[in-house]
Amino acid sequence: MIQENGKYLCIDLKCFYASVECVERNLDPLTTPLVVANKNQKGAICLAITPFLKKKGIRNRCRIYEIPNTIYYQIAKPRMKKYIEYSCWIYRIFLQFIAKEDIHVYSIDESFIYVKPYFKLYQMSARQIGQMLINEIYRQTHLIATCGIGTNLFLAKVALDLLAKHSTDRMAYLDESIFCEKLWLHQPLTDFWQIGTGHAKKLHQLNLYTLKDVAHSELTFLFRHFKSDAINLYQHAWGKDFTTMHEIKNYQPDEKQISYGQTLESDYTFQEARMVLKEMVELLTLELVSQQQITDRLYLSITYSKKYPIKPSKISKNIANQTNSYTLLKKEFLEMFDQEIIKNASIRKIRIAFCHLTKIDEMPIRLFNDANDNRKETKLNQTILNIKAKYGKSSILRVMNLQKKATTIKKNKQIGGHNEE
């Protein structure tokens, strides 16, 4: 029998959105054909499908037209607020057994847990603690969870993704030797945590098709092609990860920034996208004001329609003074947009970011400062935030928000791009 020395758990809620919808309807996700989709249209993407449909060979995130006509299924409209409530419920269950310092919520349906400090307390192994937690989740919520167990964070996540989800007891364990034995030759590489399509493509170009290939490569060779990502890639190829829960909980990014992006529902013209850009700058500026931050570095990314074989436009710009003025920031973004964006190509995605953020009270004193000039606008923005907080996001709007192709009102009714109900 394998001696398990796992210290970390990675717990995932199986088919989360679809399972919540089944539980809310007193249905069993394992026997119910249900999909979560925004629209009852053939081209709509299924945000989640039940385990029952997965067993029928339906892939997750498919489009409705890809489900065979011979299979009956229900469609549930996504309710992000409800899913967040369930996610908070799961977190409260963890807190009944584990201190918050040992829990990292990775996503709405997935968490890492450091369980080594609890072996003596519960007189249990990592596997037994994991079993206790997924049993308690089911007892309280009727949601099905899976659990990866690993000697480090990377192996816990890989055990979850590649083994536990296919195991009869919904649990799996990995240490470095088992990882090399079972998964060194696994393909595709994109199945592994933190290897995206870009890295996988580059690895293939270098004739590296498995993690065993990567593990037996020279680190200097990987550095030449992957730069700062090389060490992480090389260590993971050997099943190693030295990141601790303490480091995750205390991580601070080198540069603070806030961003906002959206995929437009249809191809937008240059002028239509320009209007949406102004809306986005206003919303992100209000976020800047609410955090009492100022910025002097801006970023704009525009992705064009698939009709055009054009690479996305990505522009960054430093501005003279740190500010949180919508008037000034809008002016700067519109200049970037007007000067750099292709005018006769339709636009499908817009992303903006305020970088190099500084707290207002940390702003260095300058002899000449336009702070007084911006005081009225800052006060106005704070008033707008107070009204929105009390009466709702759409309680106060600009004229541009009422135009046909505007997106703010619709976005105000969503969480994470989906219906908030």
Description of the structure:
This protein is of the alpha+beta class and 421 residues long. Among the domains are: 16-78, MutS, DNA mismatch repair protein, domain I, CATH 3.40.1170; 184-248, DNA polymerase, domain 1 (Orthogonal Bundle), CATH 1.10.150.20; 258-419, DNA polymerase, Y-family, little finger domain (Dna Ligase, domain 1), CATH 3.30.1490.100. It has helices at 16-24, 51-55, 80-95, 119-122, 126-141, 153-163, 176-183, 197-205, 211-215, 219-226, 229-237, 245-249, 270-290, 326-340, 371-391, 408-412, and strands at residues 8-13, 34-37, 46-49, 74-76, 103-107, 110-114, 145-150, 171-174, 258-268, 293-304, 313-323, 347-355, 358-359, 414-415, 418-419. The protein has a 5-stranded mixed β-sheet with strand order 5-6-1-7-8. Strands 9, 10, 11, 12 and 13 form a 5-stranded antiparallel β-sheet that branches. The two termini are 49 Å apart. The model has no long low-confidence stretch (mean pLDDT 89).
Alpha-carbon Rg, integer: 24 Å
Query: Would you count the extended β strands for me?
Result: 15
Shape: globular
Low-confidence stretches: none
- The spatial strand order of the largest sheet comes to 5-6-1-7-8
CATH class category of the domain at 258-419:
Alpha Beta
What fold name goes in the CATH topology slot of the domain at 258-419? Dna Ligase, domain 1
Largest sheet: 5 strands, mixed
CATH architecture of the domain at 258-419: 2-Layer Sandwich
Total count of helical runs of at least 4 residues:
16
Coarse structural class: alpha+beta
Distance between the termini: 49 Å
Percent range of helical residues: 25-40%
Strand content: 15-25%
Nearest-integer average pLDDT: 89
What is the CATH homology-level superfamily of the domain at 258-419? DNA polymerase, Y-family, little finger domain
